[in-house]
Give the backbone structure.
Amino acid sequence: LDINIVISTKLEMPMAQAGDAMKLKYKMILIFMTVSLIPMLAIAYLGYDYISNESRANIDRYLDAKNDEAYQYIDNWLRENSNVIVDLGLYLDSIGDQSNVTPEQLKIYGDNPDITDIYVGYEDKRFISAIGWKPPAGYDPRVRPWYMDIKKAGKLSFSRPYIDLETYRYVISV
């Protein structure tokens, strides 16, 4: 007679050994996560730093291009509108005695929407405005920054921007 006897038993670890195994498992997971997280953080920082630097460089290039564009626009505008002043200067030189120059004579040269006013200041303190603006009593154009800057240059030039006494807006004198 052949008899096979199978005895099945469940082997259980003592609780202390099971807890140690779980601790080891959690320690291994923690070590793995730490080892994985450090390179991820380094890569994230390097990526942020690269993107930040590239963004700044792109913004700087964009602003430089816009600055150049604005410079070209202003330069072209000044060149085009300075021709009006050159023509007016030639006209005033051609009439010789300028003691009778009127605002109407200046208006002929100011028919341009970009020109707010054409005015002339003289050494004898006279001031004539194409739009007829009358300066306050005691006004001396010779002490105004636009007059001094252009007088100092002695040729066609552009003043620094300044606030106009009539419009209270920034203007440039030619």
